[in-house]
């Protein structure tokens, strides 16, 4: 028997719910990876334990292929799991999660190959592996070390499952579009039009001048908020989460501009620096905002 | 004393394959130093290390159970205060009481500060188990890794990956300690999927028990298994595998129980260039390529699993599917890239920065064209293919294939250039212009390729040094060491008589950087002695083929009877001149020696020999026959020896003294152009 795409998603969520994770729904803004959602980026800061799992559609404009390439997508689904602090038997728990979606590990080859993760725009990095199943990378497994430029008090583990790859593997499909999403409905039925239209928009029709303007507007808004933070009297009420949304907008716009080749190599480093500065600003303020709660 | 076997197993999550061997070597060093420090190694103790991705293992046979007992001298009062008229004073008695010995047993000892009373105290050696328990946590955390992490929380211990279990046994007994919340014990773990989660081990049965649990602790055994597996897979077929030692090593340290499988791919993909197929298989999937007996690539691959078997073929199918997807991508890139010719991609290079202050790759391409042309003209070679290749060399950086597979840079440019009808001299030069990428790698095979490679590397070196971006320590982001090493090898092994010194200009740091590369090359790759290398470098260098010819000559003449004694005399001359404040230089023309001031006998004889040999040497040098030239110089030995025996250089008459110094200076100057003999370390000196 095999599971549909939605079966696999539900089974994994079920699996992690049984291990103490709250199940979140996707964050409602465009992000390049599940790591960028506040549920990861902000929750890993500070000493408070936290466990969460969520599906996050992740948008990478440069990877768009008009719905034609069988393995590359503008938007793909990640299952993001954060366990803070990381349990000692986390590797085993992870392997058991694969069994839970029908992979008989006794018949397959699993390797943990070095792959340290880094996100310059978030000032974040970690140590870990890409998990290889029969030569296919299915998961990024990372022990976070720094986030928002800050050493983490407690080391969380982040598991990022690439859902389309896993599903194509389990269903033995050579194209993601052939994945059975639900009985009788393919991944292509659900998503191909979106892949095509966003590829056309990103690569052909998006107005570069507008994108630049939007980037600057969102950056200015985030800055304005961060500048207001030190003087703001009642810290608890201060909308840092709204400031962080502006950072996410900047990051996505950056990716859009980048996919169009609108950013030169030198500009690139400078722009990444600008977004990182905002992300680091939010991370530090967020720690201060939540510090009182931690002590009390 | 009783001797015991010792076993340490550091159980971790998967350590990056390339870090394991160096870590094990360092562990061995740390452990050997510990034994020595603690006097546990009076006799040589066999320490062996081995490891897999999940365990670093150290075994030592015959560890002494405890340190030897020792004696310590405890100093008491000085004799002047401790004895009065040969009898112990109150001070001596007090000291004896404190030490718990009868006062008569105190002894007198000599110290640099005079005579003292003292006594011996016997110290019992501590047990090895106790010493190990105290030392191991620190020792383990001291193992060097290129990058470490923390996992128990901020401020916690750092290691390459989380430590999950520890086995530490001395004989049957556990060496008790705790590290990162893990207590040492006798429980190991088997293969993650095939072995038991807990295995009670002892030093004697450790390896066997682990083998039963699908862990081959010995890297050598894993390597043998991979090779045997492959031999079995291919037996009876017309297929061979392409041995790849680096990849084999990676797979050995990526697995605890390796098993090789043979997979296939659609023969249609063989239409892609072999370079692309091999890169995808090797770098991205860690597969060995498979060829037919005639060397042609076959549509098969060998993957190495970290498990015992693939009975249903699921692992093979999975790997085949991944490879198909990768190859399909490559086909797509190959087709898309062909839509824009390399020559039309040149303007796109303006958008790729080489280095902020050195401009874009377009700027670099322009400089490479100019420099390539200059080099070709210096060699009176055809500059046209060099300029064309330099102009196209970096264009593949804008192709989808190189963006996806950066390790194919250069190679792809060459393949696209060939496909687009560029002549062989041009496409091959593009293809090979990053060579040599290591000491083992070949230099470019054509003259144009060599000149484009030189232009590229020299441009990087000069530009970066001008900006003060010289490599420091292990930081070498622009790979300048490799570039300079490449320049050295291309010039020498390609026999290109180009004036390197003139090409790199006045930058003293760059000159010294090259001298370091030259020393390294001649010593490590060519086996010359360091003093011979220093001698020819000190005589000046520019054209490296000439430098090499001089070095070969020095090496050849060195064992002859007269050479080293003459080198010693030259050193003496150099010292005399230095003390007199005279430089060993030649006058612009003719000679400043005044013949009428030369004394009959040894001085005139040396002068005559000097003039005679000078004529010969100049002729040999012009013909670059350095061996003959050096032999001629060495023939001066008898005359020089006699001169120093009989002639006083520091003559009382200032005119004569000056004339003698002049002759020595000209002699030294004349004969130091091939090699500075004073750099030669003579046998006599070494014996001192």
- The average pLDDT of chain A is 93
CATH topology of the largest domain in chain B: Hypothetical protein af1432
- Identify the CATH architecture of the largest domain in chain A: 2-Layer Sandwich
CATH architecture descriptor of the largest domain in chain B: Orthogonal Bundle
Describe the main β-sheet of chain B briefly: 7 strands, mixed
Number of helices of chain A: 8
- Helix and strand element order of chain A: HEHEEHEEEEEEHEEHHHH
Which CATH class of the largest domain in chain B applies here? Answer: Mainly Alpha
Distance between the termini of chain A: 52 Å
C-alpha Rg of chain A (nearest Å): 20 Å
Number of strands of chain B: 22
Report how far the terminal alpha carbons of chain B are from each other.
Answer: 43 Å
Rounded to the nearest angstrom, the radius of gyration of chain B is 36 Å
Query: Which runs of chain B of at least 5 residues are low in confidence (pLDDT < 50)?
Result: none
Number of domains of chain A: 2
CATH superfamily of the largest domain in chain A: Bira Bifunctional Protein, Domain 2
Number of domains of chain B: 5
Helix content of chain A: 40-55%
The most extensive contact between chains is: A-B, 40 and 45 residues
């Amino acid at each position: 028997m095999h599971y549909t795409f939605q079966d696999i998603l539900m089974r994994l969520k079920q699996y992690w719910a049984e291990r103490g994770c709250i199940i979140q729904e996707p964050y409602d803004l465009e992000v390049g990876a599940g790591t960028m959602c506040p549920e990861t980026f902000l929750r890993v800061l500070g000493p408070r334990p936290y466990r969460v799992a969520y599906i996050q559609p992740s948008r990478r404009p440069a990877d768009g292929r008009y719905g034609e390439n069988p393995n590359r997508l503008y938007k793909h689904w990640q299952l993001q799991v954060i366990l803070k602090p990381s349990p000692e038997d986390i590797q085993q728990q992870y392997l058991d999660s694969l069994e839970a979606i029908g992979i008989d590990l006794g018949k397959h080859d699993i390797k943990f190959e070095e792959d340290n993760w880094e996100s310059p725009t978030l000032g974040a990095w970690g140590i870990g592996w890409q998990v290889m199943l029969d030569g296919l990378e299915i998961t990024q497994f990372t022990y976070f070390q720094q986030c928002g430029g800050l050493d983490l008090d407690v080391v969380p583990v982040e598991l990022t499952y690439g859902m389309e790859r896993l599903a194509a593997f389990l269903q033995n499909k050579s194209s993601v579009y052939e994945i059975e999403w639900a009985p009788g409905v393919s991944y292509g039925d659900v998503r191909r039009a979106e892949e095509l239209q966003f590829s056309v928009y990103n690569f052909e029709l998006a107005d570069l001048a507008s994108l630049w303007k939007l980037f600057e507007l969102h950056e200015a808004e985030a800055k304005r908020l961060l500048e207001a933070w030190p003087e703001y009297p009642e810290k608890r009420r201060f909308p840092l989460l709204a400031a962080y949304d502006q950072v996410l907008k900047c990051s996505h716009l950056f990716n859009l501009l980048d996919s169009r080749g609108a950013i030169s190599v030198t500009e690139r480093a400078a722009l990444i620096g600008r977004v990182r500065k905002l992300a680091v600003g939010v991370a530090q303020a967020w720690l201060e905002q939540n510090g009182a709660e931690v002590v009390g | 004393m009783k001797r015991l076997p010792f076993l340490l197993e550091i159980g971790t999550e998967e350590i990056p394959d390339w870090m394991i061997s160096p870590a094990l070597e360092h562990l061995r060093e740390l452990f050997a130093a510990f034994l020595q420090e603690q006097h546990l190694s009076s006799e040589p103790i066999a320490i062996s290390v081995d490891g897999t991705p999940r365990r670093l293992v150290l075994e030592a046979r015959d560890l002494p159970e405890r340190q030897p007992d020792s004696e310590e001298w405890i100093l008491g009062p000085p004799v002047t205060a401790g004895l009065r008229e040969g009898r112990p004073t109150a001070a001596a008695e007090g000291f004896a009481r404190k030490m718990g010995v009868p006062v008569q047993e105190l002894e007198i000892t000599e110290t640099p500060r005079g005579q003292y009373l003292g006594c011996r105290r016997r110290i019992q050696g501590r047990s090895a188990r106790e010493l190990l328990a105290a030392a191991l946590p620190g020792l383990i955390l001291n193992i060097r890794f290129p990058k470490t992490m923390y996992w128990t929380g901020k401020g916690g211990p750092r290691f390459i990956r989380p430590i999950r279990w520890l086995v530490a046994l001395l004989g049957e007994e556990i060496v008790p300690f705790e590290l990162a919340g893990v207590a040492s014990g006798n429980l190991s773990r088997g293969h993650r999927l095939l072995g038991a989660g807990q295995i009670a081990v002892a030093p004697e049965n450790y390896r066997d028990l682990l083998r039963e649990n699908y862990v081959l602790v010995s890297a050598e055994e894993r390597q043998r298994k991979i090779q045997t597996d492959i031999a079995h897979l291919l037996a009876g077929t017309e297929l061979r595998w392409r041995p790849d030692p680096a990849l084999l090593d990676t797979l050995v340290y990526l697995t605890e129980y390796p098993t090789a499988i043979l997979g296939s791919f659609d023969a249609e993909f063989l239409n892609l260039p072999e370079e692309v197929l091999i890169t995808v298989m090797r770098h991205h999937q860690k597969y060995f390529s498979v060829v037919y007996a005639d060397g042609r690539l076959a549509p098969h691959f060998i993957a190495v699993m970290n498990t015992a078997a693939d009975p249903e073929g699921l692992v093979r199918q999975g790997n085949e599917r991944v490879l198909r997807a990768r190859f399909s991508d490559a086909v797509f890139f190959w087709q898309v890239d062909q839509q824009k010719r390399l020559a039309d991609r040149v303007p796109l290079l303006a958008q790729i920065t080489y280095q902020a202050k050195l401009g874009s790759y377009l700027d670099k391409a322009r400089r490479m064209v100019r420099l390539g042309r200059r080099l070709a003209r210096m060699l009176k070679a055809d500059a046209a293919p060099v300029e064309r290749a330099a102009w196209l060399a970096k264009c593949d950086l804008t192709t989808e294939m190189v963006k996806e597979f950066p390790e194919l840079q250069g190679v792809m440019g060459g393949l696209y250039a060939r496909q687009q009808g560029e002549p062989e001299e041009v496409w091959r030069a593009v293809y090979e212009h990053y060579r040599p990428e290591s000491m083992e790698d070949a230099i470019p095979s054509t003259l144009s390729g060599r000149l484009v490679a030189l232009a590229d590397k020299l441009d990087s070196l000069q530009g970066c040094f001008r900006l003060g971006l010289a490599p420091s320590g292990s930081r070498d982001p622009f790979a300048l060491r490799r570039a300079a090493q490449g320049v050295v090898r291309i010039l020498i092994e390609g026999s290109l008589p180009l004036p390197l010194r003139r090409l790199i200009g006045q930058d003293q740091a760059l000159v010294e950087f090259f001298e370091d590369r030259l020393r390294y090359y001649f010593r490590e790759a060519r086996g010359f002695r360091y003093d011979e290398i220093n001698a020819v470098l000190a005589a000046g260098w520019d054209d490296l083929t000439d430098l090499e010819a001089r070095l070969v000559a020095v090496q050849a003449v060195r064992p002859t009877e007269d050479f080293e004694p003459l080198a010693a005399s030259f050193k003496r001359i150099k010292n005399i001149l230095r003390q007199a404040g005279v430089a060993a230089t030649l006058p612009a023309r003719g000679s400043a020696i005044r013949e009428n001031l030369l004394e009959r006998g040894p001085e005139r004889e040396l002068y005559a020999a000097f003039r005679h040999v000078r004529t010969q040497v100049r002729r040999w040098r012009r013909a670059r026959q350095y061996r003959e030239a050096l032999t001629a110089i060495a023939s001066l030995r008898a005359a020089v020896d006699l001169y120093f025996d009989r002639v006083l250089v520091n003559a009382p008459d200032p005119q004569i003294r000056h004339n003698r110094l002049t002759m020595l200076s000209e002699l030294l100057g004349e004969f130091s152009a091939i090699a500075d003999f004073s750099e030669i370390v003579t046998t006599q000196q070494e014996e001192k």
